[in-house]
Fold each of these.
Amino acid sequence: MQSRYPIRAVAKITGLSLDTLRAWERRYQAVVPEHTHRGREYGSEQIERLLLLSRLSQEGHAIGRIAPLTDDALRELLAAIPAPTAPAAELIGPVIYAIEAFDAARASDELSRLAAVLAPRDLVYQVAVPLMKETGDRWHRGTLAISQEHLVSHLLRNLLGGMMRLFRPRSGAIKMVLATTAGETHEFAILAAAMLASLAGLEPVYLGPDLPAGEIADASRRTGARIVSIGATIPSETLSQELRTLAETMPEEAELWVGGAAATTTYPKETSRRVIHLKDLPAFENECRRIG
């Protein structure tokens, strides 16, 4: 049975106000939600359509002109918008300024604008990855606080959620669990990987950072994941032990992928399981194509 979402949840997902949603429905029949005893309820296809309409309206398209178009026509309009030609530093500059001011709404708006005009893969490599790197560099220099780094993580998780809604995998798509093990709090790499996995037609099951190996293994078993992808940035004996435990307890038929700066130094050699080491995101994409 298809999931249904109330109007307040849809407003949160799409970034559209309740008044805008109601106006688009009443005046332009942009979507037609189901009316139940609980109020308006929306399916995932309707949410995807609202995301398309929202992005196009941000680019100056009048809602009255685009509301009658089919979803395919909306995607064609979106694809025809020229991508920004500025270097990554200029693209993410307004986002960084907003983060410095703890202005989450403005930072989110800037990311939504870039998502509207960039191809999804370009959004990952030209915006998400440079934003992660710049945030990490500034945190190490002491010019960004941990709370601001967490804010960037929150914004990128929202961005990932939007991409997953727009590029839903086919029924029966291969599932990939993404996480970091206990003690590893840096999640930027697995966020980027989850975005790229979604674009490759896989179904990411994003668990986030700092999870015990047993919890990751249990999640991979419960979801039927074919791949467990782990980010490893800080070498330690704890990380080595966690990876060994994961390799021994996760489902036998699943593959274990490990990427990040610490992947080679903490490679779980004392296991019979084949472990795939990923040196960078393009290598991750190559493995996604292989298994997909």
Note: The chain has a mean pLDDT of 86.
Amino acid sequence: MTFKQLEYFLEIAATENITKAAENLNISQPPLSLQLKSLEEEFGIKLFKRSKKKLVITNKGLLLQERATQILNLLNETIYDLQMPETNKETVIHIGTISSVSNSLLPKKIAQYKEINPSVHYSIYEGNTTTIVNQLSEGTIDLGIIREPFNMNPYHSIPLKDSSLGDAQFDYFVAIAKASFYKFSNSDYIDLTELKGKPLIMHRRYKDLWANTCRQKGFIPDFFCLNNDIFSSLRLAEEGVGIAIAPYTSAQQNNNPNLILKKIMHPAMSSRAHLVWSVNLQMTEELQGFIQLFKD
């Protein structure tokens, strides 16, 4: 496997078409096809499923897409750091973040810190909590913004404040679906038992939490679809195939007026986001200053 092969693979994944990818890469189609075939043979897996209209990336292909993006980003940053003269070298804070925070709180904090220290630059990686925890372990990022539950032992952490959550500052789960799924409820709230027998769509990291809680209420939940991204849940809810379950702060990314949000009650289940960093992180003045903004 070479860096060039990874670049070729990512372009094919982005265009879902060998011909289009070859045009964008300014190479002919046969060599590109051979490079993809060579990559698949090296790993012993299929990275795409072939259809008449497009290439459909496989689950293994999605994993390689995620890791290849990280690898090439790190390579480019390494080259940049090595070639940058010491006198002009920038301070870069590397942050991995879940999408719900990258779209709301994080941009405000970066803008706030720019007023204090305009020389600091940022490299942001969006992903899920599992991916971000791996990046922290590998040392490819300085800070992570992740959501409970996670193992707090290897990290220092600060619970994040969100003005939309009120004084309690604990996120809560909501049901997101078309009105047809709420014929049994006219309230802005919904009891957990009212979801019995309903097709549920949610991030797979919440599966065990939900399965255990629903069993305590006397039923087994119907997990129609488990995924790794809030946008997947929202899109499926838009199609009317089930009820999406997500933390309220994540659900705020919904902009479809046909989807109705209801707070889940009895029992309430909370999930809070945290800023975390490794207990072994070598702390710079710039990192200390940026972290302080989340404590104030």
Note: The mean pLDDT is 86.
Amino acid sequence: MPIRTAAYAKPEREQNFLEDLNHSVAGLDSLLSVLTSKCIKYPFVFVIGAPRSGTTVLAQAIAYCYKAGYITNITARFWKTPLVGIQLSHSILGYDPSYALGVNFFRSHRGRTMGGGGLHEFGYFWKNDLPVDGSALIGTVDLVCKRLIMMQNALGRPLVMKGAIAAIYKEQITRILGKHNVAWVYIERSDTIQNCISILDARRDYFDNQCAWFGYEYPGLRKELEFLRPYKQIVGQVLKLRRYYGGMATHTVLLSSLMKDSRNALDGIFPDFVREPPSGAFESVRHKSRPILEQAFQCVIEEYYQ
């Protein structure tokens, strides 16, 4: 397992504190679960796509524009006791933190968002119960779905989440929650070269190693690509995940379309469009030209298709 650089490492002391905090409030979370409805009242939206393709900004746009519920950075600290986290987040931030943050709600770096009200992917919640190799038993998936229903009811609105791990269990989750209650929204960064460069940058930033794997995968993907050189491995990761996620999507959004016209790009995910994102919301998504890397990846992509 590659070691993260200091800028992205998770302090052990903080992790231990949060583990203890979750354990300490487990009884309160159980009490809240008794008081929370187990009936599905709103849709679930899972955002899927290759790493660095725009999944964060799409989830942010859906949360903001449709006033959908999402996991804040505060709630994410309570991955084992999410109902407590949601109540605490509501108490501190109110019920519409995305609107309170405005354009800052859309600021992120490598998927990390700003402030207590920023959108979090809730990776610890998913990984706590659902192995990324797809080996979770149906009973475990059922329990996770029951927790999702309670989280949604605690939020009091549709729930949007990044769904890289959920996608591994797409068939089970869709069956348990109900086909008409779940949307799998796939985003594609049509500029393949920039998508690849962004993954390369993330590998270097997170691990100071361009050979270290970055991003989620489907079962068996990393093993399939592990003996390839870094650039070709990244190209394979992007193209294979596009096929994987695109094949399960109920809705498809192009990142370029989202940036140009969010209303049309998001049309149909929910019945009613609520509001436009603030001016400048998507500025952090734009890239600078880097000719040497662009040429290198272009050669690899051409080789990949030969």
Note: The mean pLDDT is 95.
